[in-house]
Amino acid sequence: MLAATEAAAVDERLPLEALRDRAVAREISPAAVRLFLRLADAWDLTVDQRRALLGGISRPTYFNWQRGKVGALSRDQLERISLVLGIHKGLRLLFADEAGAQRWFTGPNTDIPFGGRSPLERMTHGGMDDLYAVRRYIDAWRGMK
Q1: pTM of this structure
Q2: Is residue 70 within 8 Å of residue 33, measured between CB atoms?
Q3: What is the crossing angle of helices 22-42 and 59-66, to 10°?
C-alpha cells in the first residue's frame, strides 16, 4: 500500500472550487494519476476495476495515463481519485496490517451499505455515490463525523 506520508497528504484537500480551474487540474492531475495507479497496484485491481473507479474511462485513455500521458483531469475524475485515496487512508488507520484491510475491502460484507457485496464491489459497480458511501462508512467506523 502507499506510504503513510502519502496517505496523510490526502487530507490536504484543495477547495472544490479549485478543481474547476483547468490550470490547477492540469498541475495536479499527473500526481493524482500516479498515486491512484500505485494504490490500484497495491490493491491488485484489474484494469476494468481501475477504469470503473475512474468513472468508466476508455481503455485507451487508461493505458495513456498508465504511460504518463495525462492531461487535465475533470473535476469528477479528481474527486473520484480523492475518494479512493481517502478510503485507503481510512483503512490504514483502522487495520493494524494490510492483510486485514485487504480482507475487509474485498470480502463479502452483510452491513446495510454493502448488502452482501464487498466494499470494492460496491465501489466498482456503482457511481460516485457508491464511492462516497464507502468513504462515509469508513469515516463513521473511525468515529469521524
Answers
A1: 0.86
A2: yes
A3: 90
Angle between helices 98-106 and 75-94 (to 10 degrees): 120
- 4 located within any domain: no
Query: Which cell numbers hold the place of 1?
Result: 500500500
Long-range Cβ contact pairs of 21-24 (< 8 A, separation 24 or more): 22/72
Let me know if residue 79 belongs to a domain: yes
Number of domains, the chain: 1
The DSSP secondary-structure symbol of 112 reads T
Residue 115, phi-psi category: left (phi > 0), alpha (psi -120 to 50), beta (remainder): left
Residue pLDDT, tens place only, 4-46:
444 444 445 556 666 677 888 899 999 999 999 999 999 999 9
Q: Which three cell numbers stand for residue 46?
A: 484489474
Domain that holds residue 87: 16-141
- CB atoms under 10 Å from CB of 93, counted, come to 14
Q: Is residue 48 part of a domain?
A: yes
Query: Which residue is listed with cell 475512474?
Result: 54
Q: Which residues of 97-111 are buried (b: 16+ CB within 10 A; e: fewer)?
A: eeeebbebbeeebee
